[in-house]
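Batch manifest line 411
LIGAND: adenosine monophosphate
JOB: complex structure
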Amino acid sequence: MLSVTEAEKIILDLVKPFDSEVDSEILPLSQALNRILAEDIISAFDFPHWDNSAMDGYAFRHADLADLPELKLAIASQEIVAGANVKQVLSKGECMRIFTGGMLPDGADTVIMQEDTERVDDFLQIKAKPQRGEYVRRKGEFILAGARLVSAGIKIGAPEIGAIASASCQQVKVYRQPKIAIISTGNELVSLESSQPLQAGQIIDSNLYALSALISQAGAIAISLGAVGDDPQKLEMVIQQAIAQADLVISTGGVSVGDYDYIDRILAKLGAEVHGRSVAIKPGKPLTIANFDKVLYLGVAGNPVSAMVSFWRFIRGAIAKLNGANSIHWYPQFIQASTTEDIHSQGRRETYLWGVLTYAKGNPIFQPVPDPQSGYSSGNLISAIKTNAIAVMRVHQTYVPEGDQVLVMLI
Ligand code: AMP
Ligand code: MG
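JOB STATUS: finished
ARTIFACT:
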């Protein structure tokens, strides 16, 4: 049995990130939110493009104040608003009204904000001598033309969209979205789309829906290959279809001890290498890790919460790596939170206990499910409603009392 970190390493090592040439596409910037940038964006401009004012105030030459012990400057007739193309040159002993974003006139090097001045007729009384260069955003001080504005591998969010737009880029090269095939296995499963009412013994294939949602959230495209009965021949056929069209295959169910033999046989027959079958994690112990050349195969447990925990702990990061994202996206994020209830674990496997994370006066608070004794069943999907974080009890850690800090994985 692999430890959680061993399993994580094996999975990430098996993932070969997309090729930025072959596995990329050009998108209008407006459609690139949450996609992974496949090439560096080089700035076409200096930012700021020219010296400009960071305040509404008056622009002047700082050295002039040395000759003006009363700190009184003549106000030039011209005003500079943002967007104006300034031609006028500042004369000695003069200042010019300027507004935020306005171009500094030639000769000026400092801006005083209007609150620190008093206007007396055509003169400006400066109340306190400012530093040279104050409230001036200098040409190129944020970034120079030709420098890297945004790096490949960054997930494009609102700040990146804004920065790329400001550099006048209408299109960006991003990695294509990974295609993830989902195979649900089990004789008991019925499709949600079936027109027949459920018979005794049957359940809806809900994993397909939950996993599809997780896959979309991870920025990938889910491909459903439907529910397959526990039939080796059918399973072999469907796995074959999956590896032909997907970058990663997730199967759920059918990997308990008795099933290993036939799953392994199918995987081997189809040319896979199996790297692991179980992980010391609760829930989600059965985890088949295999690969067909570049296509990764992850067989997770059928229990609905197990399948989701396996996804959050291992699969989300694998998708991020596959998709060319920076390594910060390959691993879950953890914080410490204080628990509202006692938390128990058997301590044999790393234990993941779902719940709700809130903040009280800025401090993270973890609330386990209402009835931790019976609620933490991996088959109890209902208990996972409202889950937004998962407390993690390391191996040998058996108890965290109410009010103490517990490690929490963000999802
Ligand atoms: P298995 O991993 O096949 O032993 O399944 C473990 C439990 O998860 C059983 O109670 C299954 O009925 C249930 N299960 C398996 N696959 C699914 C699925 N796709 N959707 C909902 N529940 C499932
Ligand atoms: Mg089953």
